[in-house]
């Protein structure tokens, strides 16, 4: 039964048809019985699809009288011969099936072997290329170590130049409000809440619906005027608690040069209005600070705790062909054509830098309007203020276009 059953199952699976084998002799309870073997593939129902139904049907044997007569006439030998011939035929069919399967398997193995051989050659070639790349990366790494040491020295020099003006830098806070063409709030700095009562849910609301601390009811009218004429407007205004600001309203354009709205910036001039002598000292200090900043050859940006640019040196304006009006008071991610809105840089400035004092050699490669594609290394230092909320971030930028880049990280 083992040979016939295995062959019938194999034929039923490969041909998806019913296989019937007759006159198969099996032992049952010490006797011998002739059966019909049926193997039927099941198609329905769907939950039984793919299964096989194996049936063992008894076949009627010859009557006792015939058996005795056949024994007398030598028919028993003829019956055995017929059975052996059937057994031989089934064996031949099974053998033919096995031979065909072996030939098919041999072809598949031959094809697989050729594929493995081709893959092995490709892997060998790749291994040689990787070995060559490793040697090149090792050489580049040594050069980068030297460049990093030079850059670290320059960053420390710039940080020392700003140390004397630390308290002054920490006190800089510029309230800024961005409005769209319908005079609805787009975004604002935290310090702007001292002038207009703003919370996060106010984004999208008209500015005229919000409570203002200014003794100046024409702010919305002037903002509409700037949006229509594209001319910036500047006025001195005062809050209800008596503090003076210089309000500057400027057109705010998209990178495509389409007008997006206006930006309103408030510069604290209370000291200037109330104490001329103190203002003069502050202006002299600012001039000294600006002179120190402008002596540094690398582009520098000074950011407040909200990543809004509070100051930039001349090297930055020259290198990126920017103007102070488009830089100071704007968020770092909005500068230029939003080239600085980089997810990894966001993580460094917003998540890592608040927990650490600095980060070094963050590589940026971007396309900048008017100057083309440049690769730069960014270094940042957190400058603590005397009071909470007066922290600043000093961002130094070194153009390394043309120098060998950092090696890719090992997988």
How would you describe what is shown here?
This protein has helices at residues 2-15, 64-72, 75-163, 166-170, 219-229, 270-274, 276-295, 314-320, 343-352, and strands spanning 19-28, 31-41, 52-58, 176-180, 185-188, 233-238, 244-253, 259-268, 300-304, 309-312, 358-368, 372-383, 392-399. With 411 residues, it is α+β, with helices and mostly antiparallel strands. The strands form three sheets. Strands 5-4-8-7-6 form a five-stranded antiparallel sheet. A hairpin with an 8-residue loop joins strand 12 and strand 13 (392-399). Helix 1 packs across helix 3. The protein is elongated. It starts with a helix and ends in a 12-residue tail after the last strand. Mean pLDDT is 80; it is low at 63-68 and 165-172.
The radius of gyration is: 44 Å
Order of strands, main sheet, comes to 5-4-8-7-6
Question: Which series of helices and strands comes N to C?
Answer: HEEEHHHEEHEEEHHEEHHEEE
End-to-end CA span: 57 Å
Helix content class: 40-55%
Quick synopsis:
This protein has 411 residues and is of the alpha+beta class. 41% of the residues lie in helices and 25% in strands. The longest helix has 89 residues, at 75-163.
Strands, helices and their partners?
Layout lengths: L1 H14 L3 E10 L2 E11 L10 E7 L5 H9 L2 H89 L2 H5 L5 E5 L4 E4 L30 H11 L3 E6 L5 E10 L5 E10 L1 H5 L1 H20 L4 E5 L4 E4 L1 H7 L22 H10 L5 E11 L3 E12 L8 E8 L12
Antiparallel strand pairs: 1-2, 2-3, 4-5, 4-8, 6-7, 7-8, 9-10, 9-13, 11-12, 12-13
Helix pairs in contact: 1-3
